[in-house]
Amino acid sequence: MRIPLPTQNHESVSENEKLELESQILKAEIEMMNLVKELKYKQYYETATYLDNAIRNFFTHIRIWIRKGTAPPKVSSQIERLMREIKLRFKKIGTNWSPRGAAQMSKLVLKQNTSGNTWGEYWSEALKLDGKILARYVGVQFVN
Q: CA-CA distance, 25 to 101, in Å (whole number)?
């Protein structure tokens, strides 16, 4: 399935384009629902359920763009990834976070995942490494 969109966020959408895009979205949704039926028929229930749940919001971004003529922020996947990272740190067996510790851990995960190169620069400055340490991955050797 392929739905071409303008590359800029603030392009207006003509009425003809709106109708054409809505038609393409509807066709794509029907194809996806047919795939869900096929997966269920083959007894791949978990995959079918995952796809069925995803279909409901799959084209939300495009529909908002069509309705308003302005693209909404594309952040849901990044937010989901950040939430997954935070969850992984809190759900490890044997961890018992205080509210303050949980807040600090959340801040660290957010800083690490959203700040690009500044995370590495922060630790280099905080640890005063100044190029004194060189780490090189050599490999792993398994011994029987």
A: 45
Place of tokens 């895009």: 21
- pLDDT for 85 equals 74
For the chain, what are the domain ranges? 15-68, 76-126
Q: Say whether pLDDT at 71 is over 80.
A: no
Distance CA(138)–CA(108), nearest Å, equals 29
Residue among 107, 103, 100, 138 at smallest CA distance from 122: 107
Q: Using one digit for the tens of pLDDT, what is the confidence trace for 79-106?
A: 666 777 777 777 765 567 788 888 887 8
Give the DSSP letter string of 17-57. HHHHHHHHHHHHHHHHHHHHHHHHHTT-HHHHHHHHHHHHH
Two structure tokens written together for 106: 């959340």
* CA 41 to chain CA mean position, Å: 29
Residue 109: other Cβ atoms inside 10 A: 19
pTM for the model stands at: 0.44
- Reference 114, options 134, 143, 85, 90; nearest CA is 85
Long-range pairs of 117-122 with CB within 8 A, sequence gap ≥ 24: none
